[in-house]
Specification:
Blueprint lengths: L5 E6 L7 H9 L3 E6 H7 L8 E6 L5 H12 L7 E7 L4 H4 L8 E4 L4 H12 L7 H10 L19 H11 L4 H8 L3 H15 L4 H11 L1
Parallel strand pairs: 1-2, 1-3, 3-4, 4-5
Helix pairs in contact: 3-9, 7-9, 7-10, 8-9
Length: about 220
């Protein structure tokens, strides 16, 4: 099962001790490659010549870095097109914004081990492995006249927490290099976040983004 496939697993230094990772390494024929979060943020993933899926640890204290990695990899064409988060908890920020992300799966912290390989098989076969409630919410949003009144969809929550941090720093006049230094990220990652901020707010420059913030925050 999963023979001839690379599974890139990104997370903290102790990731190899994760039951999720241990199961993948012991019960699949895929080549599992474990990467440290900081290393990937600084260097990106190496080019790969076989089908691959990138899985990023999205547990609560890793969510901001997990999203940083997502935005970074999504803007590097040489990386895998298949992307999923694991160690996700219900109601987490990543779960709530999944509709704005081009991802293929979410694996919760309490997932049944046998479902891990099933989920990865499904993703590699072009399917989505997402919770039913998430899929239902996204389907409802496509219906005419649908209006979601949850707090998440109010103006001040259009952006992720990391994007809000960056927008607030932009409003102070900080340069990309200053923002990168403040958040311990690369300038490339900051540029990627700013691109997504502009896209979400439908603006084209810093001043317009700051004006949006002054009206809506």
């Amino acid at each position: 099962m999963l023979s001839g496939v690379n599974i890139n697993i990104i997370g903290p230094d102790d990731l190899s001790a994760s039951p999720f990772v241990s199961f993948l390494e012991e019960h699949t024929q895929a080549q599992c490659h474990i990467f440290n979060t900081r290393h990937i943020l600084e260097n990106g993933l190496p080019r790969q010549s076989v089908p691959s899926i990138t899985l990023v640890d999205g547990q609560n204290n890793q969510q901001h870095q997990a999203l940083d990695i997502y935005y970074l990899t999504r803007n590097r064409s040489e990386l895998s097109d298949l992307f999923a988060f694991f160690n996700i908890t219900s109601g987490s920020e990543i779960e709530q914004i999944v509709g704005d992300l081009d991802i293929h799966g979410l694996f919760y912290t309490d997932i049944v081990p046998e479902h891990i390989s099933r989920g990865i098989d499904a993703i590699l076969n072009g399917e989505l492995w997402l919770p039913r409630k998430v899929l239902s919410e996204q389907l409802l949003k496509t219906k005419p006249g649908y209006a979601n009144t949850s707090d998440y969809n109010q103006n001040h929550d259009v952006l992720t927490h990391r994007e809000m941090e960056i927008l607030n720093l932009i409003a102070t006049g900080a340069k990309n290099s200053d923002i990168a230094r403040s958040l311990s990220l690369s300038v490339h990652t900051i540029k990627t976040h700013i691109y997504h901020i502009y896209k979400k707010l439908d603006v084209s420059n810093r001043m317009q983004a700051v004006n949006w913030a002054s009206r809506n925050l």
